[in-house]
Amino acid sequence: MSEKFTKSMSRNIFYGGAAFFFLLFVALTFDTTRALPERDHRQNITEQVAFGKKVWEKNNCIGCHTLLGEGAYFAPELGNVYTRFGNSKEAIMAFIKGRPVEGIQGRRSMPQFNLTDEELEAVAEFLKWSSEINTANWPPNVQG
């Protein structure tokens, strides 16, 4: 090999690298589109899950909590809260219903939203649904 790096050598490296990474991009796109239908969770959305999402948005829960890594980091991750509460919607509902307004001095606490039983059930169903999404093991720890 010559010691001089020529213009044609540079061009060949560029075109070769561009072709390689384009083919890699196409292969990864194909692999993703093949794998996504197996992970699709949308067919399990019920009226109650949709209503729970509306209650979630209306009360700006994402303003404090994260859901699957998205949202504020003030309060715990809720993507796996259903499993943390022993796979019990009743435990989630009791926790939300029993939250104090004032909380503990010097600690963050969740306010009381005074949700109806129907809204509580819907939010619990939404959190159950979101915990069943295949997230490739996110969050990385049980506590979120």
Account of the 3D structure:
By secondary structure, the protein is mainly alpha-helical. The chain folds into two domains: 1-39; 42-144, Cytochrome c-like domain (Cytochrome Bc1 Complex, Chain D, domain 2, Orthogonal Bundle). The chain has five helices and two strands. It has a two-stranded antiparallel sheet with strand order 1-2. Helix 2 (47-58) crosses helix 5 (117-131). The N and C termini lie far apart (55 Å). The mean pLDDT is 87.
CATH architecture of the largest domain: Orthogonal Bundle
- How many individual helices? 5
User: What is the number of independent domains?
Assistant: 2
Binned, the helix content reads 40-55%
Please give a quick description of this structure:
By secondary structure, the chain is mainly alpha-helical. The chain has helices spanning 7-39, 47-58, 81-84, 89-97, 117-131, and strands at 66-67, 70-71.
Summarize this structure as a short list of keywords or feature phrases.
144 residues, mainly alpha, 2 domains, two-stranded antiparallel ribbon, 2 strands
What order do the helices and strands come in, and which of them pair?
Elements: H1 7-39, H2 47-58, E1 66-67, E2 70-71, H3 81-84, H4 89-97, H5 117-131
Antiparallel strand pairs: 1-2
